[in-house]
Amino acid sequence: MKKHFATLLSGVFHPLLVPTYLFALVCYALPETLMRPALPDRWVVMAVVAVFTFALPTLGTFALYRAGLVSSLLLQERQQRAWPLLLATASFGAAALLLYRPTVFDPLLAQMMLGMTLAVLLAFLVTLLWKISAHAMGMGGALGLLTLLGLQQLAAPGATFLIGMMLSVVAAVLWARLVLRAHTKAQVVAGLSAGLGIVFILTAYCRG
User: How many Å apart are CA 20 and CA 129, to the nearest integer?
Assistant: First the structure.
């Protein structure tokens, strides 16, 4: 039963789904964070994110599987992850470029997408030598971003609850990866640290 629940958590919070969840929270749970586009038009942002961070990387991985370049869609082996991560990096980067329209989209949106692109690129580079937890990296990035935005919007309804909920989700996902023995503790800690680090470094750079 424990492993079934861990598998469910790993699937629901797959690294390719986390960007869509995160953008949805920023666009709709913390709407005051963004100046543009207007609330009714934010579906355009969600469409870009869903297509370029989930649909295209998923289709790319499936194409690699069909071509025999990866032997499993689960990508459990480190050697299986390089090509899918490289394709994901390109797709995430394309989304960042599309969202970099200062007159149309709030700069925060492009910054978020850039951070995610850097995270996937880092995962690709590390994977060439060592297995790092992409789940933990995604969770670390999401936690860092929502914490920063939540602290800035403490007066907004539900901001504190959102941070607390995110902490619980992160803990649950990290637990799931360890229960499934998909990663060692070191790989999980490294992923979480990398995700948090990218958010804080990029935030400091953009503010500087």
Answer: 29
Overall residue count recorded for the chain in this entry: 208
74 touches 169 (CB < 8 A) = no
CA angle 77, 78, 79 (to 5 degrees): 90
Contact 173, 10 (CB under 8 A): yes
What contacts 24+ positions apart, CB below 8 Å, involve 21-30? 21/142, 22/112, 22/141, 22/142, 22/145, 22/146, 23/49, 23/109, 23/112, 25/146, 25/162, 26/108, 26/109, 26/112, 26/145, 26/149, 29/158, 29/162, 30/149, 30/150, 30/153, 30/156, 30/159, 30/162
The total number of structural domains in the chain stands at: 1
Closest CA to 14 of 146, 171, 173, 128: 173
Domain that holds residue 10: 2-207
Q: How confident is the model over 139-172, as pLDDT tens digits?
A: 999 999 988 887 776 556 667 788 889 999 999 9
- pTM for the model stands at 0.93
Residues 40-71 pLDDT 10s = 999 999 999 999 999 999 999 999 989 888 88
Average pLDDT in the 19-27 region?
A: 95
